């Protein structure tokens, strides 16, 4: 008989053994259905002819595999990636496997699904709820469940609308092929520097060997145009290409640029896809029919049939680091996938991470530089505004030089962008008479006032409350005041200064889907917006030729945290947002408001001397033994019971191996000491590069027990340290 070891998509378990029934072919990688207790789970054959060792379940007690899914097997390269990811990030292999497989229903079954969309018929008598649902469903299509979620109504309301004829069925073919991108559709005329970089990337693709490349070019230098040529090379070789983007909001502009270059849209993969789109894309990717995929970090684990190149755009972005579930860094996993697949991995960035630059210095990554903006566009002039010398008037946040520049920009009919990384109206609300501050009951965080929707919100757990009319503490009336600015408050200030200038607030509250992002881009391009007030969401990727002024409202915000990455992150963020200014024929200018214009990071931005700033930051890391010079992991211990959390954290700290290699800092309250009702303590583990940090943590934690109410999560290569 044949005995196979199966990795099930169930987080709690490692691989389990099953009997392969006679007549079933189940080579490694085959996607199968296996029984577990009363359930039937999807799994993947990890070892085909497993030889049991003593102590393992005997052959006669094995259960039979139920069936094979009708899908291509997972290739060995992807299986290795899953194993590596689980191993490196100390995550259950099954949790990693789940990122490679869609839901079981997507693996089989029919080649069509039935979705619903508006028919145009409007029933005579509509309840208010149904009417609201209809308004929200304009242009939407999906399963009953998806439409209900989108309209924020129950499934029954949607079914009622179907019965009433307002929604009608549409049959969606799941095996409809995607149109093929044409590498010769509209090739650009590249500058000599661009052409040289593009030629090297194409050569790397054709070499079919592992090669990480840092494509390091200032904002507007044409990095996208250049890496498009790597995609073209993959297409000509008949292979697939993957582009990872940091935000799904950037997908839409990317799709348009891609279509202009290659004639058709690439295949998008992100959390906002409908189930039918997800099923269709997954299969086309696995069968090699989908040739170019653009997606969020989760697209990294898809079962590409024949991947030829991976591109990580804006590779320095923090959103590539996943914090929940499997805590992995998509940039680093992309490089590993490139190694296993033996293909180049291109990291594109104007402000690469210190870790990435270090790999270049070590000679492990190739570097291609694009030193100037394309077409003679100049980099913007950057000026610091000293908020102590030139403070904004009382109760406002924009200093006189920035207001003057804003006025001139608007008078010329150009566009401006004000950047403040704070959603809502004000980050803190307090009572003037008793000092009461509105804090989230579940998190160590203030409730943020969102005046547009008249709510107080926690940005960490999503708690929403009505702003009360009286202070809940002292019952004073009209005593609540908003402290500090958020983007909504800046928008109010702009409205008061320039009432005729059309404004747009761009945050994750307003730009939560690719469609909304597309609408924003359209309005910007049509000149329907004069001033954008936005968070980090507007700092990257966008290209608006008439945008000539960028104002950074509070450059000190990111430096306050005080972790070792604060200056680097501030530099990246401000350099990126500054990069939005003056990308076309008109020159751009940037004003940075700060209380500390002498800070090295502000000086580096103003002088444009990134290299010496990086050198100093890298040296600071070296002295601290921090990454990339040492290894780090954070152990986060959390519980709803404060005592259990702190005691477990201390117990783990006491049990730390004393091998002279690792150092443990803490436990101390985690950066968010309470999150979603759980008390959190953190131990930071620090080891030299040569140490087997994961192995040490595995045996250290593996020998310990803690109460069931306590969760212990390990974050390897934590973002903040
Ligand atoms: P980056 O990604 O480095 O910020 P982009 O690739 O977005 O730069 O290029 C900036 C702008 O310049 C885009 O509008 C792009 O289409 C244009 N551009 C860059 N290189 C060329 C070229 N060789 N020919 C035509 N347009 C170009
Ligand atoms: Zn909260």
UniProtKB/TrEMBL annotation:
Gene3D superfamilies: P-loop containing nucleotide triphosphate hydrolases, PriA, 3(prime) DNA-binding domain. One of its GO terms (biological process) is DNA replication initiation. It comes from the Bacteria. Zn(2+) 1 binds at residues 431, 434, 471, 474. Its cofactor is Zn(2+). Keywords: ATP-binding, DNA replication, DNA-binding, Helicase, Hydrolase, Isomerase, Metal-binding, Nucleotide-binding, Primosome, Zinc. InterPro entries: DEAD/DEAH_box_helicase_dom, Helicase_ATP-bd, P-loop_NTPase, PriA, PriA_3primeBD, PriA_3primeBD_sf, PriA_C, PriA_CRR. Zn(2+) 2 binds at residues 440, 443, 458, 461. PROSITE patterns: HELICASE_ATP_BIND_1. Binds 2 zinc ions per subunit. Its EC number is 5.6.2.4. GO terms for cellular component: primosome complex. Residues 204-370 form the Helicase ATP-binding domain. Signal peptide: none annotated. One of its GO terms (molecular function) is zinc ion binding. SUPFAM superfamilies: P-loop containing nucleoside triphosphate hydrolases. Initiates the restart of stalled replication forks, which reloads the replicative helicase on sites other than the origin of replication. Recognizes and binds to abandoned replication forks and remodels them to uncover a helicase loading site. Promotes assembly of the primosome at these replication forks. Belongs to the helicase family. PriA subfamily. This is Replication restart protein PriA. It comes from Sphingomonas changnyeongensis.
């Amino acid at each position: 008989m044949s005995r196979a070891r199966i990795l099930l998509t169930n987080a709690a378990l490692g691989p389990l053994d099953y009997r392969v029934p006679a007549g079933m072919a189940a080579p490694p990688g085959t996607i199968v259905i296996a029984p577990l207790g009363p359930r039937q789970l999807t799994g993947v054959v990890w070892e085909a002819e497993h030889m049991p060792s003593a102590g393992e379940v005997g052959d006669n007690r094995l259960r039979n595999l139920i069936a094979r899914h009708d899908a291509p097997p997972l290739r060995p390269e992807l299986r290795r990636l899953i194993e590596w990811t689980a191993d490196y990030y100390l995550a259950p292999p099954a949790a990693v496997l789940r990122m490679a497989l869609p839901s079981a229903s997507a693996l089989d079954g029919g080649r069509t699904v039935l979705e619903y969309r508006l028919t145009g018929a409007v029933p005579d008598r509509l309840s208010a709820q149904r009417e609201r649902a209809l308004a929200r469903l304009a242009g939407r299509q999906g399963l009953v469940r998806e439409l209900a979620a989108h309209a924020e109504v129950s499934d029954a309301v949607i079914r009622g609308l179907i019965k009433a004829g307002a929604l009608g069925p549409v049959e969606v073919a799941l095996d409809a092929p995607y149109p093929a991108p044409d590498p010769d559709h509209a090739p650009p005329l590249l500058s000599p520097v661009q052409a040289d970089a593009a030629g090297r990337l194409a050569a790397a693709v054709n070499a079919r060997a592992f090669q990480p490349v840092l494509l390091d070019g200032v904002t507007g230098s044409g990095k996208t145009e250049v890496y498009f040529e790597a995609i073209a090379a993959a297409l000509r070789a008949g292979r697939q290409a993957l582009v990872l983007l940091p935000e799904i909001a950037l997908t839409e502009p990317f799709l348009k640029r891609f279509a202009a270059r290659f004639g058709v849209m690439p295949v998008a993969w992100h959390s906002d896809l409908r189930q039918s789109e997800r099923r269709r894309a997954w299969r086309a990717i696995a069968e090699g029919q989908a040739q170019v995929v653009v997606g969020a970090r989760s697209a990294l684990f898809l079962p590409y049939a024949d991947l030829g190149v991976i591109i990580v755009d804006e590779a320095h972005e923090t959103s590539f680091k996943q914090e929940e579930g499997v805590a992995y860094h998509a940039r680093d996993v992309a490089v590993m996938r490139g190694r296993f697949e033996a293909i180049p991995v291109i990291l594109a960035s104007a402000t690469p991470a210190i870790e990435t630059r270090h790999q270049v210095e070590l000679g492990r990554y190739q570097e291609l530089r694009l030193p100037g903006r394309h077409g003679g566009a100049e980099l913007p002039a950057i000026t610091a505004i000293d908020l102590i010398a030139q403070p904004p008037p009382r109760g406002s946040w924009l200093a006189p030089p920035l207001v003057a520049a804003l006025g001139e920009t608007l008078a010329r009919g150009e566009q401006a962008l004000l950047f403040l990384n704070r959603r809502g109206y004000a980050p803190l609300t307090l009572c003037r008479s008793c000092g009461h501050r509105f804090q989230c009951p579940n998190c160590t965080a203030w409730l943020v006032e969102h005046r547009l929707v008249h709510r107080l919100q926690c940005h960490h757990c999503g708690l929403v409350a009505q702003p009360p009319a009286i202070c809940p503490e002292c019952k004073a009336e009209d005593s609540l005041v908003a402290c500090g600015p958020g983007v909504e408050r800046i928008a109010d200030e702009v409205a008061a200064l320039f009432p005729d200038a059309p404004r747009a607030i761009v945050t994750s509250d307003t730009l939560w889907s690719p469609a909304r992002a597309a609408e924003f881009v359209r309005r910007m391009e049509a000149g329907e917006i004069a001033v954008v007030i936005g968070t980090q969401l507007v700092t990257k990727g966008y290209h608006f030729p008439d945008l000539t002024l960028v104002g950074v409202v509070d450059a000190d915000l990111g430096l306050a945290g005080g972790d070792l990455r604060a200056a680097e992150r501030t530099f990246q963020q401000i350099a990126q947002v500054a990069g939005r200014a003056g990308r076309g024929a008109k020159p751009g200018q940037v004003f940075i408001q700060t209380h500390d214009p002498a800070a090295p990071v502000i000086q580096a931005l103003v002088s444009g001397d990134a290299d010496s700033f990086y050198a100093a930051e890298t040296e600071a890391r070296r002295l601290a033994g921090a990454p990339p010079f040492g290894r780090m992991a954070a152990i986060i211990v959390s519980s709803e019971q404060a005592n259990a959390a702190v005691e477990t954290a201390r117990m783990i700290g006491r049990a730390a191996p004393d091998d002279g290699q690792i150092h443990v800092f803490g436990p101390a309250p985690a950066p968010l000491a309470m999150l979603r009702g759980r008390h959190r303590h953190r131990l930071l583990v620090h080891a030299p590069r040569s140490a087997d940090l994961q192995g040490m943590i595995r045996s250290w934690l593996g020998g310990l027990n803690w109460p069931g109410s306590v969760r212990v999560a390990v974050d390897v290569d934590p973002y903040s340290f």
